[in-house]
Amino acid sequence: MEKLSYQIHPKIHCKEYENNFEFLSPEKRTRLGVIQVILKLIGFEIEEECYLIGRLEIVKSQTYLNKLVSQIPWITYRKGMKSINGYKSDEGWGCMIRVAQMMCAHAFVKHNQYRFNEFTIQQHFETILPLFLDNGEDFEAPMSIRNILKVGKEIIDKGPGQWYGAHSISQVMKEVHLMYNTHIEKTLGFVTFNEGVVYKSDLINEDPENDRSFLISIPLRVGLEKVDKAYIPQLKEVLLYPDCIGILGGKRHAAMYYIGFNRSGVLTLDPHTTQKCVNEITEETLKTYRTIKHKHLKWHQLDTTMAFCFYLNNEESVEKFIQTISLWKELFPDDYLIGLRDSKAPMPIDIEGEIEDDFEIL
Amino acid sequence: MKDFKSQPLEKRKSDSKKVLKKFPTKVPIICYKDHNSVLPSLEKDKYLIPKSLKVLEFEQIIRKKISLGEKEALAFFVNEKLMPKKDSTMDEVYAQNKDEDGFLYIVYMEENISG
Lengths: 362, 115
Hints:
- The structure holds 2 protein chains of 2 kinds.
- Chain A is of the alpha+beta class.
- Chain A has one domain (2-341).
- Chain A has helices at 14-20, 31-41, 62-70, 95-115, 121-128, 145-156, 166-180, 182-185, 232-240, 283-286, 315-331, and strands at residues 5-7, 51-53, 57-59, 77-79, 188-192, 197-199, 213-221, 244-251, 254-261, 265-269, 274-276, 295-298, 305-312, 339-341, 354-356, 359-361.
- In chain A, the strands form 4 sheets. In chain A, strands 1, 2, 3, 5, 7, 8, 9, 10, 12 and 13 form a 10-stranded mixed β-sheet that branches. In chain A, strands 4-11 form a two-stranded parallel ribbon.
- Chain B has 4 helices and 5 strands; from the N terminus they run H-H-E-E-H-E-E-H-E.
- A 5-stranded mixed β-sheet of chain B has the order 2-1-5-3-4.
- Chain B is 33% helix and 22% strand.
- Chain B is globular, with a radius of gyration of 14 Å.
- The A-B interface holds A 92-96, 155-156, 163-168, 171, 194-197, 219-224, 228, 231, 250, 252-255, 303-305, 334-337, 339, 347-349, 351, 353, 355, 357-362 and B 18-19, 22-23, 26, 28, 44, 46-50, 53, 56-57, 59-61, 64-65, 70-73, 75, 77, 80-82, 84-87, 110-115.
- Chain A: This is Cysteine protease.
């Protein structure tokens, strides 16, 4: 069968689909619910093996899936690096760092595509990947593992050999981007919403003359031992949101980058392959940053710590993102994961209380 | 927390009743860190919290109390489930999740890490 994929209208944004799909019961008015209705109308059934990837691509064919996967930068463990505190490889400890690098590289490629759309994906990779070269220091390779480890040590006291989680790596990447990736930072701000609450005031462009894009990370815990089943529909909505660039996640102790899902679990890029370190991006070395290999993780295997990541290219996409967060609050009234506030409010009460009857009274 | 639950149920019940009566605008909670967590412990584990306080605000208070910076991850659980949405009031959380002894048990912990 040569029909490779169905591509549904990529711009079904919340307002439009709310208006057009009022006949659906509210819980079906999720993006996934709407997709299922459209597919039914056109006589297509989502089969077990079909993956759904952001921008609403429903991928049935392995060939097409491979092509999509290869368009996302793949960053792995490396060996033969210039020594970092005695470490010449990050095998066995760097996987969350690699996953976060993949996410950032993916965002930068999208940012480049948005700003310079005349180039091919290969050319975008050639521009972006040098920022991630392992042996580059400071401004030579702003997003290098060396810079990440240096900043990690400074701000949260995690050095080479230590493990990261989705939350801690988001803080470090944000800082590295701000300190060293100054060229891209001019047009792309990195924001983390650490309490699972999106503050609108953090997404305001202070210079209306120029577009400002945003890379957003929302680190969350979605269960104690296992991902609480109640949250899976929300994870699917996040992964289907056109501006979602994936989720930093993994299975217990092994970080992976979620880029899509199907009925039984998520589609991931896996950093757990050790490749030789390279010092420049050439046609040959670029191949070590692209793959068609992807892994499947079942819903129950997912680690409970994760970070939802988004790339918003302009004011309009920020607006849509905010609308979508409030839509999710309506669609999942009892257990929405992401809160929304105008800005950080001062604490309404004292944090120290009187002690009475052995209770501290706040 | 184990110490607390080792007290007889009847005693705990009468304790919670007593404070609920004495402080009608507050809810009694027991808050402590998960036994596997490496985060700092709270000095006290018994609190009376304003009913109108939002989950987000409660979380921020505990963060301050254990002097945890904003860059560190902190997650809260009630009854082995994630703490309800951030805009809920503590009164709602209490009503839906309190123990049979009349206290609400809240556990906190850090993020999982991977290598």
